[in-house]
Every structure is written in C-alpha cells, then in structure tokens.
Write a structure and sequence with these properties.
about 30% strand, alpha/beta, eight-stranded parallel β-barrel, about 600 residues, six-stranded antiparallel sheet, 13 helices, TIM Barrel, Thrombin, subunit H
C-alpha cells in the first residue's frame, strides 16, 4: 500500500525543493482560481515543476479550488486544458461545476473547501468521479476510520500547519465585512484578530484576546495511527509560507514516515529516489503558533493562542540585566548576530527586536527594547538556521547501474535506474587506443560525475576486450548523452492518473444528498440537481443570507472556559447570548451542542 507525503509549493523553486526534501507529491496554485489568490504561478512554471517531479515518480496537483461565477467558466475550462497539457496530475477543486466541463481526463481531488466531513459527502464525491478527497481538519480518528471503511476514494488528511477556525468552505465573514471572499481565495483572516468577549449584559469576559486564533497542527506522533485508520495521503499546509518552512517541514515528515515504512513491509512510498539532507529538520524551527493535534483524539482544553497569532519561537533564555545599550541574558542557547528575539510586554503583547551583535551572554540590540530583568525571551528568527537553509540543503537521486561496453566501432554506455528504466548511448571512434596503464580508475571517475543530474552511480562495470584509453572528454560526452536519454525515457514512461468515471448519482448510502452550498454558477446547480439535492443554496458572494452563520466553528469558547453543559456540567456565571467585538464588527455566538460547535452570526 502506497503512502503519499504531500507538500506545499508556493512557487516553482519551493516545489522543486519540496521534491528534493522528500515529497511524494506537491500542490501548487495556477494563474487563477486558487484558494490562495496571492500564491499564483504560471502554466510554464507548472510545466517545469511537472517535468522535475515526474522524474522521481512524484506528482503535481494544481489547486483550482475557488468557486466560479458564470462568466468565468469558459476561462477556467481553457486553463484546465492548458494545465493538463503542461503535465499536471490532478486538480484540487471545490466548485462542482468543473465536473460538467468539457475538459481532458485529468484526475479530480475534492478540496477541503467542499466540507468533506461526512460519509455521505465522501460517497457522493466518489460517485461523481473524484479519486482523492481532502478530509475536514476537524475529524477525529474514529470519524476518519468510519469514512475510509465505507469508501474506496483515497483519503488525504492535513498533518501540519495553520488551522482555520471555521469549517472550510463555511466561512463568510470576509465576504460579509470587507468583500474579500475566503471561497474566492481572499480570506482577510478575521479569526486571527483580537476580540473582546461580552455577555448579554455587556459584562466583559475577555478583553482584546485572539479568541478564535487556533494553534497550528502537528500530528507527527499520530501518523501510524492515521495510516491504520485508512489515511493514504499526508498533507502539509503552507502555500503562503517561505522556502525554509517548505524544506524543513517536508524533510521532517519524510523522516517520520520513512521510519514507519522501514518496519511496515505492507507499506511503501509513492515516489522514488533517495533523499540526503545537509541539516537536522525540526518543526519547532519554522513558523508556528505552538502546536495541537486539534480534534484527532479528543477536544483539547485550549487549542487557541489568545495572546498572539504570531510566531513566538523557541525559548531563548531570560533577561538578567538591562544596560544602556545591551542586555545580559542567562540560560540561553547560542545566539547569533541577526537573530530575532521576542518577549511579552507589560500589556501581554508580543514585542520583538533584532540582535545587532551577540557576544556570549551579552547581546546588543539594533534598537533597545523596553525590557525588565526576569523577562522571558524567545527566538523567532534564527539567523544561522535560515542562512543554512538558504543554501542547498538536500539532494534527491535515483540509483543507476552503469555499464561501459566495447562495440565493433566504438563504445556503448548503458544506464539502468532503480525502477528498471534504461537508456543506451553510443560512441563511434575511428581507432581504439590501448592504454599504457590501468584505465579503470579514470573511467569510473568520469562516469560517476553525474553532478546536477537526478542520478547517482550505484555500480559501474567496464567490459572491454583489453585496457582501453578513452579520453575524458569523450567519456564526458557519452555520459551526458546517456543521462539525457535516460531522463527522457523516464518521462516518456511516466503514467499520469486518469479521472475515474462518474457513477449514477443514486447509490447505497445516498438516500439523502448532502446540502449543496456555495453554488455560484449554472453548471454547479445542474450538478447538484442531477444528484437529487433539494437544498441548493446560492453562494453568499451572490446572495448574502442574513440567516447564515458567518462562521461555523468546532472550537468552543464555552468549553474552553470549563462551562460545557455536556462535559463539565457547569453553567457559566454570565448571561447568554455572548458577543464578540472587534472595532465595528460584532458577532453573536450561538452554541450548537448536539453537533458540538459554535455558530457566529
């Protein structure tokens, strides 16, 4: 059974490095219609990424996961054709209107924006021709197992990165308050803002706190449990993150998954090539809001970061003394010139400063902060770490067996890679020279110079009728020709996944079609109508519904305070309904206890 590590590709360079650092697949935004509007890439860049990834049997998925309006259908259809011609392996989509387009047989994956949280929804997508589905982040291990036990679609689960407070696809606050739709790739991140929480009488429960800002996912310790629950694709969030984040998190999860595969003969990687790292990856070193497994096992007591939605970093000691232009730090790791340090000030807000010069325990800030002795410091920018990851930090190679053989009119060089792909290059020489000394060391040295190619020599054999002198320049030319041929042969042999045929909309377990949300075009309406949906709702962006919650949240403020009537059996000392306010934005909270979630109106 093949296991896939799926990494983000904010751009072409990051995508290539994700492959180098161990990704079995990457996902990337195209020129338009991706749920990260600021992470767009040209079709030519996607073509280049596909060419690189496919050498290693790795796949490239293009996120085309916004809802589409009627006047955009033709442009989206044309773009999909171009993406298919560029070599894309699959589309990640939210808008079901795409399934009715006249497009090539490209595989379809259902975005998490499609609210894939129930067996019924996933069964419906499977029958509609989807081969992979990104399950909702809010699902527990038991809920994942319940879905995978009843479907054959490949389940994809987020394992690392940012968490949205609202259920994906069910957040309309940006569209309502500033005309920036999350379902159109323009989320304004209201969940990261500070909110003041009051009750019906105006009493303040919490003031200016990031009450909806969730910690980041880190499910490093749960990978094998998720495999046993049926998960086959492990996804790292991060199409808005930088190169060092992509390198570090991809390498970290490659190691964690490989450790499982090494003791599980029933499992294997879904791509090829050996990854060599020049650093020790660790998730704490990259941007995070501290970590949670969220709802995978049970509801966490406090999944939020109420003081800040920013990256505080790792502990960096405490302040022993504050001088006129410097600070004495104790119990600190090695600090470097250029490091970024942060601390929580007297108002419990995060402040930061840059180290201009570090001399052991004495640091000279670029600008002196207002610090007190005893203040705890954290490092959120490690200059030495970032400088290391700015350099080449990993390589990925396919092992090849090399054979140099003598022919009637010259020599042949044959390459066979670890998957059995092969190529042969020929070199005609007018006269075969006899070597005066053993030529084998030089021949092996020249043939092993595979440099920036995706190959490394596993073995080199020389089969000639006697010691032959072959100039290094000719060996280099023969080697380059064979490498080019093998690379092309691998790409020619690559087989892309195809879209699976759609089945009848009606089938076992589909007595009630899931509600059709975010319907923004005629083709999506027809899709849901054909599948028996009776609750087809126009997209909020087209027809704002005042009765629709602006956010639907599994995180519960009442639970976090110990006031859950089902678990804690303790009433709050405040009067409901509760409200959240940020500036002119005021939200009313309603608690949906049967479904264990909050709705914000």
């Amino acid at each position: 059974m093949k296991i896939e590590l799926l990494a983000p590709a904010p751009n072409l360079a990051c995508g290539i490095e994700a492959i180098n650092h161990g990704a079995d697949a990457v996902y990337i935004g195209g020129p338009r219609f991706g749920a990260r509007a600021s992470a767009c890439n040209s079709v030519d860049d996607i073509r280049s990424l596909c060419s690189y990834a496919h050498i290693f049997g790795a796949r490239v998925y293009v996120a085309l996961n916004t809802i589409l309006f009627d006047d955009e259908l033709a442009e989206a259809e044309s773009l999909i054709r171009r993406l298919y011609e560029a070599g894309a392996d699959a589309l990640i989509i939210q808008d079901m209107g795409i399934t009715r387009m006249d497009i090539p047989p490209i595989a379809l994956h259902a975005s998490t924006q499609a609210d894939n949280s129930s067996v019924e929804q996933v069964l419906s997508l499977e029958r509609a021709g989807f081969s992979q589905v990104v399950l909702a982040r809010e699902l527990s291990l038991d809920e994942i197992r319940a879905i995978t036990s009843r479907t054959s679609i490949i389940p994809e689960v987020f394992i690392h990165g940012a968490l949205c407070a609202s259920l994906s696809g069910r957040c309309y606050i940006s569209a309502a308050k500033c005309k920036r739709s999350a379902n159109r790739g323009e989320c304004a991140q209201y969940c990261r803002l500070p909110w003041t929480w009051t009750d019906a009488k105006g009493l303040v429960i919490a003031h200016n706190r990031h009450l909806l800002s969730l910690k980041d996912l880190n499910r490093s310790d749960d990978l094998e449990a998720m495999i046993d629950a049926g998960v086959r694709s492990f996804k790292i969030e991060g199409r808005m993150k930088g190169m060092s984040y992509v390198k570090n998190t991809t390498a970290w999860y490659r190691r964690q998954i490989d450790a499982i595969l090494s003791r599980r003969p029933d499992l294997s990687r879904s791509s090829r090539g050996t990854v060599s790292l020049a650093f020790e990856p660790h998730p704490d070193n990259s941007f995070n809001r501290s970590f949670t497994t969220y709802l995978l096992h049970q509801r966490p007591a406090r999944p939020t970061t109420p003081l800040t939605p920013k990256f505080a970093g790792r502990p960096a000691g405490s302040v022993r003394e504050v001088r006129a232009d410097s600070i004495v730090v104790e119990n600190h790791p090695k600090l470097n010139n250029g490091d970024g340090l942060v601390f929580f000030n007297d108002a419990n807000r995060l402040e930061g400063f840059r180290i201009n010069r570090a001399e052991g325990s004495l640091i000279y800030p670029h600008k002196m902060p207002r610090l007190r002795p005893g203040a705890k410091l954290f490092r959120n920018h490690d200059q030495e770490w970032e400088a290391m990851l700015d350099k080449p930090s990993a390589s990925r190679k396919l092992a090849v067996d090399i054979l140099l053989a003598e022919t009637s009119d010259g020599y042949s060089l044959s390459l066979v890679d670890e998957s059995g792909h092969s190529a042969e290059a020929l070199l005609a020489v007018p006269i075969k020279e006899v070597a005066l000394s053993d030529p084998a060391p030089n021949i092996r040295r020249q043939l092993s110079k595979l440099g920036d190619s995706p190959f490394e020599a596993s073995s080199i054999r020389i089969e000639t009728s006697g010691p032959r002198f072959i100039p290094s320049s000719l060996l280099g030319r023969l080697r380059r020709r064979a490498v080019g041929l093998l690379t092309q042969n691998i790409l020619d042999a690559y087989v892309r996944p195809c879209r699976i045929p759609a089945l009848s909309p009606v089938g076992p377990g589909l007595s009630d079609a899931p509600a059709a949300l975010n319907v923004s075009n005629r083709e999506a309406r027809r899709f849901y109508s054909e599948r028996g949906a009776t609750d087809i709702r126009p997209a909020f962006e087209l027809s704002p519904d005042p009765d629709l919650p602006l956010m639907l949240v599994k995180h519960c403020l009442r639970f976090e305070q110990g006031w859950c009537p089902r678990v804690h059996r303790q009433a709050s000392p405040f009067t409901e309904p509760f409200y959240l306010r940020n500036g002119s934005v005021r939200l009313r909270i309603e608690f949906d206890c049967p479904n264990c979630r909050m709705a914000l109106y």
